[in-house]
Amino acid sequence: MLTIVKIGGNVIDDPRLLHRFLVDWAAVTGPKLLVHGGGKIASAIGQRLGIEPKMVDGRRITDAETLEVVTMVYGGLVNKNIVALLQALGNNAIGLTGADANIIKAEKRPVKTIDYGFVGDVKGPESINAKALDAILQAGFSPVVAPLTHDCNGSLLNTNADTVASVLAVAMAEKYKVQLLYCFEKKGVLRDAADENSVVEKLTPESYSLMKDSGQVYAGMLPKLDNAFATLQSGVSIVKIGQSEDVLAMAEGKPAGTTIALEA
Amino acid sequence: MLTIVKIGGNVIDDPRLLHRFLVDWAAVTGPKLLVHGGGKIASAIGQRLGIEPKMVDGRRITDAETLEVVTMVYGGLVNKNIVALLQALGNNAIGLTGADANIIKAEKRPVKTIDYGFVGDVKGPESINAKALDAILQAGFSPVVAPLTHDCNGSLLNTNADTVASVLAVAMAEKYKVQLLYCFEKKGVLRDAADENSVVEKLTPESYSLMKDSGQVYAGMLPKLDNAFATLQSGVSIVKIGQSEDVLAMAEGKPAGTTIALEA
To answer: Where is this site: Transition state stabilizer (chains A, B) (predicted)?
Structure first.
């Protein structure tokens, strides 16, 4: 079983939470691959450099200067610090962007109403160099992947980390049994947004449909969950959503987080 | 033959020269490994962030803030842009710091008269994870190595790129026949510093000694050349010094640069 985990800003921006996560991640057995987002550090560094973050509909507009910042922060500062910490914890981590070994090809998003700048759309699992990733895993390394992709013409592109994780999972599912774990700020999908402990153990297309109708899941959760179901339909064996503190339990199949399932 | 090349600021800071070098580097046949320095970009970014570069005896003092800057710039901006450009040129590059696959262990320099901060000293070839590098080369990847090392306790350290190149060369010489090419701003060691074309074809310990006595080589060249001779004595087969424009000729054994040799 290949375990792929995605962590986001809530973990990366909190040194205590990040350290706890990395200790648990180092303890996960078997081949594994970590995808990280960028967090607020990119905006903070950008602002110190005099570059104001430009967001449209919750997405960062990546102009040339911003691309430099995310390359520095995601590919350098965040990625290499995670790698060094994991190595100190005994995990044989190797930090990669989509350009390294050309593991993730993308296309610069075409300009329609909004020019997102240097943002990369990954077409699908065929954009992943699964052979290279397999060679890296076979050599005993644990990839730590920054959400930067390659236009195959020498330019890096900024890509959503959730997307990177799911496309990697689908591509690797051709050879491996894959479990994909999304860590976010909640313990899982909640029956009641006000009750942290109302975690839905298992979400099927039927229960998801009911929860959408009742308004129990909404906004930012919808693309995450749509994406999770699509990933299962594309051959990934297990998909779970939960908090980073539960990563070890989720990876080991203990009750934790919400399991996304095609059948009840 | 494993070819190891080190490029410095004069190439990295000049997009035209960098592109020309990368085209040639992509054309070098056989297993290869590129070590790059940082150039002036780290100082420029640091200054924009309000961090003044602190130099003592030509060495950067690496406080915690400066370590963040060099991690971003060397490990992110410079390294990943080189990797993306090389991938576009058909070279299967993979960007690494000393923390990735723990390839370069170092010790934080002890404080004597000067506190260099987060600067790493590499003990010797035993600090190199040659097995990991060999696995990466065997998998068909060309490492691009940033001058950052790992204290094995979760912290990156800033290390001189010339040192990184020479220690890597010596460590890899256990398994490979290695040629080590240092690219700098001159065509080679010059008989006459004022005459760009007075390149010494071959420098032996005897001719080096004479040139030191006559003052033809001095200052910054001395540690470079001392280091080059030591590398040969430690098992590296070929060491040359020349300009980046001649990297292909040097790699292919055509007349270019200065060959450092133990015998005439």
So the answer is: 6, 224
User: What is the ipTM for the molecules in this complex?
Assistant: 0.95
Contact assignment for B72 to A45 by CB distance below 8 Å: yes
Shortest alpha-carbon distance between residue B95 and chain A (Å):
6
Given A49, A79, A101, which is nearest B92 (Cβ)?
Answer: A101
Q: Is position A60 annotated in a ligand binding site? A: yes
pLDDT tens-digit series, residues B69-103? 999 999 999 999 999 999 999 999 999 999 999 99
* Fold assignment, B2-184: Carbamate kinase (3.40.1160)
Greater confidence (B46 vs B38) lies with: B46
Contact between A106 and A157 (Cβ < 8 Å):
yes
Residue type present at position B260: I
Smallest Cα distance from A49 to chain B, Å: 6
Q: Is B134 an interface residue toward A (CB < 8 Å)?
A: no
Preferred mutation among A21, A48, A49, A77 to probe B, highest tally of B CBs within 10 A: A77
The values of phi and psi at residue A219, to 5°, are 50, -125
Per-residue tokens: A183: 């860590």
Nearest CA in chain B to A50: B48
pLDDT digits (tens, 9 = 90+) for B134-186: 999 999 999 999 999 999 999 999 999 999 999 999 999 999 999 999 999 99
Spatial separation of the C-alpha atoms in residues B70 and B72, rounded to whole Å: 5
Q: Do A79 and B77 touch (CB under 8 A)?
A: no
Whether B114 has its CB under 8 Å from any CB of chain A: the answer is no
Q: Are the Cβ atoms of A100 and B88 closer than 8 angstroms?
A: no
Coarse DSSP helix, strand, coil percentages of chain A, rounded to the nearest 5 percent: 40, 20, 35
A207/B contact by beta carbon, under 8 A: no
- Taking only the tens place, the pLDDT of each residue in A119-137 is 999 999 999 999 999 999 9
B223: enclosing H helix or E strand: helix B221-233
Residue B56 has pLDDT above 90, yes or no: no
Helices (H), chain A: 9-12, 15-27, 41-48, 64-70, 79-88, 130-138, 161-172, 205-213, 221-233, 247-251
